[in-house]
Amino acid sequence: MSPYLAAEDLSMFGTDPWWLVVIKAVFCFAFLMVTVLFSIVWERKVVAWMQLRIGPNRHGPWGMLQSLADGIKLMLKEDVIVKRADKVVYILAPIVAAIPAFMAIAVIPFGPSGNEVSIFGQRTTMQLTDLPIAMLYVLAVASVGIYGIVLAGWSSGSTYPLLGGLRSCAQMISYEIAMGAAFASVFLYSGSMSTSAIVEAQQDRWYIVLLPVSFIIYVITMVGETNRAPFDMPESEGDLVGGFNTEYSSIKFALFMLAEYVNMVTVSAVTTTLFLGGWRAPWPISTFWEGANHGWWPLLWFVIKVQLLLFFFIWLRGTLPRVRYDQLMKLGWKVLIPVSVVWLMLVATVRTLRNENYDFADIALYVGGGVLVLLLLSFVADMFREKSKAAAEPAEQPAGFDPMAGGFPVPPLPGQELPPVPRRRSRQERELIVSGGPDTHSDGPLTGSTDGKEASDG
C-alpha cells in the first residue's frame, strides 16, 4: 500500500459487551434527539434575530423548551387519514423517512479509534461501530430515507403531495451523483471508506484544505438532499401548499419534521468527519495543548463543528429565497455533476503522480498544463459554436405571439415576446373625453373638431 494511504485497523470494533453496545446506541439516539430539539429553537431564534423579531420566549427559560412544547402539541392533535389514501403505505411512509435518518450516526466517530475512554470500568472507543465500507453504508441509508417522502406523496391520493414526491425523487437522483463524486475524492486521498480511517488520515491536514472543491460540492448537495431552503422544492408551500406532507397531521407530520432535522445533524456529522478533521481539535488548540485530542475532549470539538454547520443551514434559510425547479435541476445536472467529475479526474491524476514519487513542482506543472489546454479547447469550441449559431439564425422573424389564441391568456414561452401594450391615454385626454371633448385616437386633432363643449358654446 502506498505510504500516503491510511491503513485500516478495525480490530477494536465488535469486542464490546452487549450492555456497552446498548449504552452507545442509546447515546447516539439521545445525541440526535437533543441536538434536534436545540436546533429547532436555535433556528427560530436566529431567523427571528435576522428578521428583527423576538422569536420563541414563552416556554422555558429564554424559550428553550419551545420545540418540546411543539412536539407535545403535535402528538395531541387529531390524527386524520384521508379517504383516498392507501392507508398501509400512508402510515408507513413517515416511519420509512424517520428510521434511516437515525441509522447513519452508527458509523460516525466521536473520538479516537483507540480505547480512549472508560465507561463503567470498560475501555472502549467513542464510536458505535465501523465498517470497511462505512461511507457506502451512509449513502445507502440516506437513499432509503427518500423513499419515505416519495411514498408519502404517492399514497396521499392528492395532486400536490404527488408532485412533491416526484420532485423529491428527481432531486435525490440529481444531487446524489455529485455527492458520490465528492465522496470518491476523499476515498482517493484517504485510501479507505472507513470513517475512523478517514479521520486518522487528516492528522496533518484537514481535507477542506486539500479538497476544497469536494467540500463545496458536498455542502451544496447536502442542502439539496435534506430538502432545506433554498432547495426545499418537495414541500414548497408557494406552489404545492405543503408538498408531500400536505395530507399529514399529528404524530405522522411530526415524524417528517423529525426526519428533516435528524438528517441535518447526520449530514453535518458526515461533513465534519470527511472534511473538518472529525473529532480533532482546531489548529491553534492542537498545537500548544497535547491533550486536546485525548479523553472526552474530542467529543466537544465534534459537537462544536456540527453546531457550526447547523448554523450554516439556518443562515441559508434566513438569507436565500427558494429557487425555481428548473434552476434546481440545472444546477444539479449542468454544474455540479460536470464539475465533480472533472475534479475527481484531477484528484485521481494527482494521487497517481504522488504514488509514482513525482515532485510537487512536476505535479503542478502537469496539472496546470492540462487545465490550460482544457480551457483553451473550451474557448475555441465556444467561438465556433457562436459562429455556427449566428449562421443558423433564420432570416425571417417568427410570427408574433398571441396570448389569447386559445381563448384564455397564457404566458409566453422562452424566445417569445408579448405584443406591445396599447399606449394609455394621458390624464388631460381622459378629462377631455369625460367632459365631452373629442377622442384623440378616433376623432383626429383637437383643432379641427366642433364637437363637445366648443359646439355647445357656439
TrEMBL record:
The chain crosses the membrane at residues 18-42, 88-111, 131-154, 175-199, 205-224, 253-279, 299-319, 331-351, 363-381. It comes from the Bacteria. Residues 395-458 are annotated as: Disordered. Keywords: Cell membrane, Membrane, NAD, Oxidoreductase, Quinone, Translocase, Transmembrane, Transmembrane helix, Ubiquinone. Its main location: membrane. InterPro entries: NADH_UbQ_OxRdtase_su1/FPO, NADH_UbQ_OxRdtase_su1_CS. Pfam families: NADHdh. It is a multi-pass membrane protein. NCBIfam families: PRK06076.1-2, PRK06076.1-4. PANTHER family: NADH DEHYDROGENASE SUBUNIT 1, NADH-UBIQUINONE OXIDOREDUCTASE CHAIN 1. This is NADH-quinone oxidoreductase subunit H. It comes from Streptomyces pseudovenezuelae. The gene is nuoH.
